[in-house]
Amino acid sequence: MIKSLHKRQSELANSQKQLEILSNGIFQNGDLPKFKDKIAETGQFPLTAKKLEILQINVGYMCNQVCEHCHVDAGPDRKEIMTRETMLQCLEVIKNTGAHTLDLTGGAPEMNPDFRWFVEEASKIGVKDFIVRSNLTIIRSNKKYYDLPEFFKKHNIHVISSMPHWTKGKTDKQRGDGVFDKSISALKALNAVGYGMPDSGLQLDLVYNPSGAFLPGNQASMEKDFKSALIDEFGIHFNNLFTITNLPISRFLDYLIASENYEDYMYALVEAYNPATVKNVMCINTLSVSWDGFLYDCDFNQMLNLPVNSKVKHISEYNESLLEGRKIMISQHCYGCTAGAGSSCQGSVT
Ligand code: SF4
Ligand code: SF4
After folding, report:
1. What are phi and psi of 32, to 5 degrees?
2. pLDDT band for position 1 (50/70/90)?
3. pTM exceeds 0.85, yes or no
C-alpha cells in the first residue's frame, strides 16, 4: 500500500509548494499562458460566484484506501475529522440556504464516527439531491459498514462512487490491491436493495478518472462501454457514469512529477482548453466546507489551502450575500476543469 504524502513527509504535502510548482516553470517563462490570462481572452476573468446551489462538505480526510491519484491525499493515517459541533453549524446553513444539493465527501465520509448522525439530521431538513461519495470498498471493509446500502436507501441518498475501470488490473493499479473485487461486491449489495435498478428511484452513479497522464474519453461512449461490461460480466446496474479529469494537485501532481509527465500533462490540458466550459465550472454555484469548517470555492482549492476571497471564511459566519459575487480563487490547476468537455464532481460540464 502506498502512503499519503503527509505520512511520507513529502514536500508536496505542503500546499504552498504545490502552488509554487503550478505558478513557476512553464507558466512563469511564458511557454504556457496562466489560467487567468487564458480565460481573460474571452472576457471571463474574473470568475465570479453566483447563487449557492451545491454545498459540498468534506467530513474528513481519513480513508480506508490510499489511491495513487487522490487529490485529498487521504488515507488511514489522516486524522482530520469533522466534529459534531462543526456539523451542527453546517446543518444551520443547510436549513437557511436555498441550496438544492448537499454533497458529502471525504476521505471515506462513512469513517467519520458522526457520519450516520449527520445524515439522519440533514435528511430531516430535506434537500432535493442528497449525495454521499462512497468509495464502495468501505461497505465491504468491516461488518459495521455492511448495512450501509440499507442506511443509504432509508435516507434516499444519491450514491456516487469511483470505479476507474471494469477490469481488475486497471482498477487495482490506481486504487490498490483487492479494490476491484470489493467494489464489485459492494455494487452488488447496492443493486440488491434497489440502487441503480430501473425504476427504483435510488440513484447510483459511477465516476471514472483516467489511470495515467491523459484526459478522459467521451463521457457518453464510456458510459455505454461501462454499462455493457458491468452488466455482461457481473450483472451490475448503475445510472450514470461521470468522467472526471485528474487535476494536477496532491498525489496526482506527485505522480506526474515522479513519472516525468508533469509538463506534457500541463501542455495537454492547455491545448484542450475549451472556453465554453468556463461558465459552467462547479465553483460558480458550489461552496466547499472543510473538516474544520473553513470555506473554499471547491474541494481542490480546499486541498491547496486557497480559502474563499470573502470576509466570511468559516461556516459559522455564513452569509449568503457576502459570499455571492465573490471572485473565485484560481491557479493553473483550474485548467483541469476546462479541458475538453470540462470536468466537475458531476462529470463533464458541456
Ligand atoms: S480517491 Fe477517494 S477512495 Fe481513494 S484515497 Fe482518495 S478519498 Fe480515499
Ligand atoms: S479547480 Fe476549483 S476554482 Fe478552479 S475552475 Fe475548478 S472548480 Fe473552479
Report:
1. -125, 145
2. confident
3. yes
